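Deliverable D5.2: sample structural annotation.
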Amino acid sequence: MKEKVLLNDFREYRFLSELEYAPDGKNAALVVSQANKKNGYDSTIWAYRPQQGFVKMTSLGKEKGILWLDNRTILFASQRDEDRQKAIQKGEELTTYYKLSLDGGEAQEAFTIGLKVGSLKKIPNRENLYLVSATVDTSRPDLEGKTSEEKDKLLAQYKKENEAWQIIDELPYWSNGRHFTNKLRHQLYLYDSAENKLTRVSAPMADAAVSHPSPCGRYIAYTAKEYDSLMPLKNGLYLYSIESGETKVITKDVYRMGQFDFWKDGKVVFAASLCQRYGNNENPFFYLCDLKTGEITQLAEYDHSVGSTVGSDCRLGGGTSFQVQGDYLYFTSVVEFYGNLYRMNLNSGAIELLSTNDGCVDMFALSQQGDILAAGFYENRLQEVYSIRNGARNRLSSFNEDFFNRKEIAVPQYHPFVDADGVSIDGWVLLPRDYDPAKKYPAILDIHGGPKSLFGDLYFHEMQYWSSEGYFVLFCNPRGGDGKGNEFADVRGKYGTIDYDDIMRFTDKMLEQYPAIDPAKVGVTGGSYGGFMTNWIIGHTHRFAAAATQRSIANWLAFNYVSDIGYFFGPDQQAADNWNNPEKLWFHSPLKYLDNAKTPTLVIHSDQDHRCPDVEGYQIFSALKVHGVDARMVLFHGENHELSRSGKPDNREKRLAEITAWMDRYLK
């Protein structure tokens, strides 16, 4: 008999990221991460050789940022020098790269860049020249040319001032996962490793996002937002000449532009929306831009998001999801509830499905020979690497195979239904371990975040754990979610109405479908938008015996001007702001209805959550206590909105233990 899934099993999961082919397409590499005993995560580099499979190349646990220097050599970021480690502790920003041969031997130091590097790309046809993306505090003292003593003095003063006060003169002033971001920018540089020289590419106050060198090696294209007071919602596309150092504005403040890539040397293809039809969450169209003339033409309409939004708490890091090769654009997208790989013919705009229509592709790698590697979730497994060819897939890795073979993993039972307005809704149920239809069981309704996200039939640790503990687990994709087009996702000004109706209808149908569920012992939980909906539910119905609200929204009047995205997300999603129709904001605020609440509720929040700030959790907890409802709040120090997905392992374990204990208390 297989073992049950345990609360802390996530500590043995291996998370995959940065999957990349070597230039000749014969070998590949990726980063594999796993929780360690120091309450953090180790990351190591593995090589893939078709004849040998996957081979571990590093072992210190701090290696990432893969870049192929040539067909046999990997460049990666790490920090192994004690003196530099001490300098970083004092406040210096240094990133060291090492070279590692596939043929074996120790990694050799290549160079150190005086920046906090986020990504590094080789400039084609330019020896020793790299494109660097780095996070830069524009208010930091300039250390260029300073002695060690002068650096120490300047950094000590800078640290003292930042500990004593925080200057805020722009919006947003903080960002989830990065804390205060006032005057922080993602900036681009050229780095000449032979001369150890940095040359700025992006403007001093530009916040750069996606960047690529041109295939010819003469240009760099990048997207960015330029501001010094209020961050705009739309961005621009810029072209930098490496030879002249001049920057050309291709388009600015017209599109909300996401991913792009070069097609040949003179054109780029990009995904972008005008935000005119469905607001800020509008799905993008595909466009083609002639960089010489600046002419932009629509290549193809599209009614789905670009990238993968299928939820799981078993990811750490990402990889390539949008790339041009030859005359095709390869990209990931969610259709229905599958995260698939597609390609578009750039001459015709025709789009075709490449992967099997199930599971989820998280990232992919393309070889010059036409081979495709993909990392993702299939067959109820954790992440593995697959080859994709002619619409079929073949599993190549076994990073999580031992876990899959040892554990009894519940298979999601698919239960689509039609809601009151005739809209098709997808839903699933996990059966409790050792399920006996003649017995009675408690159930937990789990609600996804977003709202423009979704559930699929992927492995989800918390749900598998609850199933192993004897719970039915219910989850669905109400209106507002991704995968079914703009109309389905559009809940602007409707929060707590049609989405609430869909969730309640799904719950009713599952109770009818499974008489073994005890209707008096059903709990509800969710995070972010799922936390909002949990708060809404306890103020509108008493049908649930327990609730656990996580990283939630309580009050749109407060959220709009505290959240890092509040000033644009709140007014867009609620079709109102604090001055124009504040009554509507209050109508859609769960806090308004908590004088009706009776459901015992656990509140989970983090004190560095700047997406749904902890003040939202405090309001829910206080309101419940004032009205005599049994409530408990657990606040996690130093964690942010991503606690359940990438928080410290001890805190992830504590969070799930608290939720489960609360459900056990009232449902068992």
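Annotation notes: The two ends are 25 Å apart (CA to CA). The chain has 13 helices and 38 strands.
The annotation will be released with the project's public dataset once the embargo ends.
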